[in-house]
Design goal:
Helix content is 82%, strand content 0%. The protein is mainly alpha-helical and 211 residues long.
Length: 211
């Protein structure tokens, strides 16, 4: 659907409402709960300080953006190949969100940088995104279930990818700046925190299935 008819048809209004009530809770929880990027950022600044960690943080942010762009290209290509792709991705997306909710619920505080190099580099943060399954699934699910049902406009997809990249970067920076203070809070209250986050994700998965 071209960009202009979108404004006249009211599809944009429906898409914005969908973003606010379905995508945004899912995106906030996915980006801000403990994951490879956030824990990497937190432990890097906790261990080496923010000044020595800016390169790996930049690598995380740019690598995340590259993955989102690749996910957008893949989603558009698959959409054109098969009309049933959207329905398939809806169920895959819901299953992934259910899995993520369970994973968050049962997860416990842990350290993940035991085998990391002494000085984390830009390349380390960048390459880490290409083996980060959570980021790949997040990009595929988000684009295919929250944008493509409304439009395949390159403008809207680009804006969505840009927004996802900004949100991912903010999440990594928040964890990096929080450092040991945020980690201590999670260690003390992780069970309550994980339970609430998991329940919100379950609601997001049901909303997706009923959409």
């Amino acid at each position: 659907i071209p960009a202009e008819p979108l404004f006249r048809s009211g599809i944009v209004k429906k898409m914005i409402l969908n973003m606010l009530f379905e995508y945004l809770p899912y995106a906030l929880i996915t980006n801000f709960t403990p994951g490879p990027n956030n824990i990497l950022a937190l432990n890097s600044t906790k261990t080496y300080g923010f000044k020595r960690s800016w390169k790996v943080l930049l690598g995380i942010c740019l690598g995340f953006t590259c993955i989102m762009i690749i996910c957008g290209i893949v989603c558009i290509s698959l959409k054109k190949v098969s009309d049933t792709y959207q329905n398939i991705m809806k169920y895959i997306g819901a299953l992934y969100i259910f899995w993520l909710a369970w994973h968050i619920f049962k997860s416990k505080p842990s350290s993940v940088l035991e085998n990391s190099p002494k000085e984390l580099t830009f390349l380390y943060g960048f390459i880490a995104q290409f083996v980060n399954v959570k980021v790949m699934l997040y990009g595929m699910v988000s684009i295919s279930t929250f944008i493509l049902p409304y439009t395949q406009s390159a403008l809207f997809i680009f804006l969505f990818i840009f927004g996802m990249s900004i949100l991912g970067a903010i999440a990594a920076l928040v964890w990096a700046l929080a450092g040991s203070l945020f980690q201590d809070f999670l260690n003390r209250h992780y069970r309550i925190f994980n339970t609430v986050m998991g329940l919100i994700l379950v609601k997001s998965a049901f909303d997706l299935l009923l959409h």
